[in-house]
């Protein structure tokens, strides 16, 4: 009985203890500008990855999709390790490789046993510096990507968000998709991909991050051994100065009455990564809430909009988002509804926005802050999310922001702050709208714009 009690108590950690017991993130900068960061814990596994400050925003009309194309080729072999040898070496470690490309970041990472960390660093360095980009593999992946582009069209949520970026940042790099256009993928050459790597894969724009059972000193030693060949960029060239992607209040409507449900996304311009208003807007989104018909709770959910959605059958689901970039962002909501419920759902959602600007209460803010704290602590679950958190933080903020600091920022938010910040970004602002599906009932843009403020006497 005593042993069982000890086993149970070992897993009981208070919220405050969880924040205080997080290991410190150690950061070391190499001579070529590469930053090496790690968080050491008593884990039998580790995740090691390279986060690079480059994405589709750094592409132009002609090479849009190059980063996504390169992601497909990253693990297909290097100049030192042909495709089969590379795969065999990874499988012999029992490791898992993955990567992703977004509008401002590219990441390649490996999850492996802690003892294999030096080998993981060597493999990542080989991928970043010596990717083979064989002509045969380029042609093979070209067909794979073209098939993926066809399949992406069936994911209406992703399609809607791509349209939202296209109308909100029209004519700029943020308005383009990460995957690129079919025409670009068809004509992309090996020379285009080599040029993309040579232009953007510079050491000061990279972060080698690790989490789990890793020693920071051993990680730095491995980085010095294998990443010293990454080209150094002069300070003024390390991070290219990008033109501001101006937000435009406008809309894109793609009507297709053959589809069963309508997808609607509405957003205003949000703040960039480093803006302190982000924390307040996250609290506002937690008040706004989210809903799906598969959720339990029915009309007893804490979100007022979710309660209305259940009582009046307004939608199948809705979600909020606060998508940040280096100097701008998109703050809004997305919902899926039946064709005849669009007007009612949009009316209620915009009404909830106006209520956030004018009538937010302290009890709502308290509940929302607890939701955020729960989501924040969930970041501790696993070496991969911790590693990603380290890499993205160093790229976006220049440092790893501790959870204690996030907690203090959340604690400082009150109802007045929510009302003031929401008024700053939402009230009487021109929104960007993207709509796909049977959207005949979607009101005229000017009518939607008129619901972005209240006339009160």
From TrEMBL:
Boundaries of every Peptidase M16 N-terminal domain copy: 35-181
Organism superkingdom: Eukaryota
Chief location of this protein within or outside the cell: mitochondrion
Residue ranges constituting the Peptidase M16 C-terminal domain according to the UniProt record: 188-372
UniProt-listed InterPro entries: Metalloenz_LuxS/M16, MPP/UQCRC_Complex, Pept_M16_N, Peptidase_M16_C
Subcellular location: Mitochondrion inner membrane
Subunit structure: Component of the ubiquinol-cytochrome c oxidoreductase (cytochrome b-c1 complex, complex III, CIII), a multisubunit enzyme composed of 11 subunits. The complex is composed of 3 respiratory subunits cytochrome b, cytochrome c1 and Rieske protein UQCRFS1, 2 core protein subunits UQCRC1/QCR1 and UQCRC2/QCR2, and 6 low-molecular weight protein subunits UQCRH/QCR6, UQCRB/QCR7, UQCRQ/QCR8, UQCR10/QCR9, UQCR11/QCR10 and subunit 9, the cleavage product of Rieske protein UQCRFS1.
The protein's name: Cytochrome b-c1 complex subunit 1, mitochondrial
Species this protein is from: Nothoprocta pentlandii
Lineage: Eukaryota, Metazoa, Chordata, Craniata, Vertebrata
Gene that encodes the chain: Uqcrc1
